[in-house]
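Researcher: Next entry in the queue.
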Amino acid sequence: MSLMPQLVLYDEDSKQLVAVAERLVSDANAKAVFLVDKNGQMLTEAGELVGLDTTSLASLVAGNVAATAGLAKIIGESDFPIHFHQGERDNLHITLVAQRVILVVIFDERSSLGLVRLRVKKAGQKLSEIFDRIFKRAEAELEDSGADSPFAEISDEDIDNLFAD
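Model: Structure for this entry, 165 residues:
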């Protein structure tokens, strides 16, 4: 299993992600759009955000995706990449993008599930392209920094000797 690089967004990355999120809010006639890392970190938000606890939303969405992945495995599925929660006023459409990022769309009666799904599919393709580039860059930086790490020359034996009685 390869080491998963830390997700680092540069200013240009953030601008591209915000642009896709804002476009999705408009195209899907949604209330709000969020991008959340699987670890529960909010990456991008767009739309009507007043009164929303976005920190809790990010954590709970990540937990929901993790729990649903567990349910999928129990019944023999690899994952459930799309989730839909219908409420009295607002609905949540949750999609896994690039296997590591969660796209959340909050919408109400001004939109429809069909329109949201259609627009999410298009936005998801664009987001996958952006995140593929980000992940490739992060992997390359991880490989480059490995040789320069101050810990690169320390062996397991050195660590054992350090902590030996």
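Model: The CA atoms of residues 84 and 93 lie 5 Å apart.
Researcher: Noted, moving on.
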